[in-house]
Amino acid sequence: MTEPLHPGATIGILGGGQLGRMLSVAASRLGFQCHIYEPGAAPPAGHVAARVTTAPYEDLAALRAFAQSVDVITYEFENVPTASLDALEAICPIRPNRRALAVSQERIAEKDFLTGLGLITAPYARVTDLASLQAAIAQIGTPAILKTARLGYDGKGQARIMTPEDAPAAWAAMNGAESVLEGFIDFSHEVSVIAARGLDGSVACYDPGENVHRAGILHTTTLPARLSPTQRSDAVLIAARILNALDYVGVLGVELFVTPRGLIVNEIAPRVHNSGHWTQAGCAVDQFEQHIRAIAGWPLGDGSRYADVVMENLIGEDVDKVPALARERATQIHLYGKAEVKPGRKMGHVNRVINRLT
Ligand code: AMP
Known about the structure:
This protein is α+β, with helices and mostly antiparallel strands. Helix content is 28%, strand content 29%. It contains 11 helices and 17 strands. It is globular. The site of adenosine monophosphate (AMP) has 13 residues, from strand 14.
């Protein structure tokens, strides 16, 4: 498919969480239908999508039937098994492409790719057992962070190593999974860039946002971020470089550490990103519409920022604050329709417009 998708076409989304839900809303505004593929029951995206397939990612027959029912496939979840992607791709284009997924599914491949582009990451080394962890600590030093190479998110699958004596406990915490040791970056703050690339190769970046985490989970994203003009353009250039190198189509999130030595890339996410939710209140075209435009082969929209915004996640029981939040007039509320409140679960977010730029 190289022609733009016409309204009425169907977009397949792997993963039915809040990102899939907000993508489905954006897609339906553009006249598309969405078909969600999600292993779990009652996915948040199911409330707003035209169709839902409930099946595991290993069910090749269900995946093939899904691929046959859609015009393009995208995802909100990057850990789909390779064999499943092979089955899907034989039938229908996947955007962003397989390389973007492969690079971001595995932290070592991701860092090899980023450093290969000349970008700076934390020093890193592959760890497969206690002996290789000890060798990595000798090479990189402490403090350091041990992370599972795959399937880590929101700070899960990570252990801090303050001295070499912490090595056995840190390795035990990985449960035998291949891991990467990263040198600890002494950053002043964290920012992220949400960027998009269209099917025609055009690139549009949103203004970088400044992220604050609590207990390993994103708490707030604030626009504007504290960045010098040079840092701001560096952030955007880093994102554009990654997009072009991957021949990427869609929205990408790039997390960066701000240090006196410059910007250091923490990780990339080949999808719409929690730290891009502020665009719903700060831009004419938000990250969700931008992603749908890109994968549908439409022109990218205008992502310039017209307001200062603070996005705050509603985690677990934060959702109890909704009645009070509803009384704040300039606060945009987004709830994900999750029935069960659990500690650490993302239940929704709010975007507060602090100041309109004219
Ligand atoms: P990650 O899951 O890799 O995004 O890590 C979650 C959070 O842990 C990041 O947002 C940082 O706050 C912190 N972190 C991760 N890696 C490092 C590092 N190499 N140095 C310092 N802090 C880190």
